[in-house]
Amino acid sequence: MIRRVSVFLIFCFYLVTFAFAQDTKPNGYFLKDSVKIGEPVPYSLSYKDKKNRPVIFPDSLFSFAPFELIDKAYFDTRSDSINSIDSAVYYLATFEIDTVQSLSIPVFVYTGKDSIPIFSAKDSIILNQVVTQMPDTVNLSETRAFQPVSRQFNYPYWIIGLIILGVIAIVVAVIWGREITKRIKLYRLKKKLEKFQQEFDQEIESISADTEKTKIESLLKFWKSYMESLEQMPYTKLTTKEIIQIQKNSSLEETLKSIDKNIYSTIAVTALQNDFEYLKDYSVDRYNHVTEEIKNA
How would CATH label the architecture of 20-127? Predict the structure, then answer.
């Protein structure tokens, strides 16, 4: 008995729901009679229901097949003392080739625990076909006019090229890295020597018995600076005595002492140019010694 009553109540619920849906069906229709493929067409949907009853209109998650949603516009609810009217316009586009295409869109009425979909009556629209009949052959017009195309950077090839260059660089560094380093050092030392000789010769030519002692001292510091960069020794911070103790060269000793006498003594030294010429020759000799050590390393 209880089972029969339950079945009867369920039947009555669906009957009421069906009657409610039939009495309050939404009004949906296209605002145009025909449409082209891909052209947006407006579809109007409105629904009249009792005031303050929640009604949900479809959004972008709803399937509008065979159409696709392009845009939508919702309008404010209009109400009187009894009823409310909700409305929206959907802008749809089709890419199907059927001559006549139909659509029915529902609204969802919230009943408290669930929502009931109520569909509008189907409305149809005619597809305006641009090409009505495909010819057997098509005459194509030929053109040889140049059309400029923007160039795009090929990142995959660029990355592959960098990887290949990296591998080549590693191989070269492993096999010929030491030899390349030697050649770079020798090249830099040669350039420094050429620059030193050129500037040192110009200073030597300007030396005379009347040359100021400060200029002679400055020229000696210039020679020490070059020797310091050549042999990686602090020549500029060493005295003549300390340099002689390191180099152990009698000719160098006599030359440096002669220059010191000219700087710090009132006695004029006539062989001053010869002394600086010797320092230049000594620099070349030390250059040859350093380069030989690099080559044999």
Answer: Sandwich (2.60)
Rounded Cα distance between 221 and 203, Å, is: 12
* DSSP conformation class of 68: E
Helix (H, G, I), strand (E, B) or coil at 104: coil
For the chain, the structural domain boundaries read 20-127, 178-295
3-state helix, strand, coil in the chain (%, to 5): 50, 20, 30
- 291: tokens are 């380069």
Entry pTM: 0.46
Q: What are phi and psi of 90, to 5 degrees?
A: -105, 135
192 close to 252: Cβ distance less than 8 angstroms: no
Q: Pick out the chain residues at pLDDT < 70.
A: 1-23, 131-135, 138, 209, 267-271
Tell me the C-alpha distance between 109 and 120, whole Å. Answer: 13
Is residue 235 within 8 A of residue 225, CB to CB? The reply is yes
d(CA 45, CA 59): 12
d(CA 248, CA 213): 27
Q: How far apart are CA 240 and CA 252, in angstroms?
A: 9
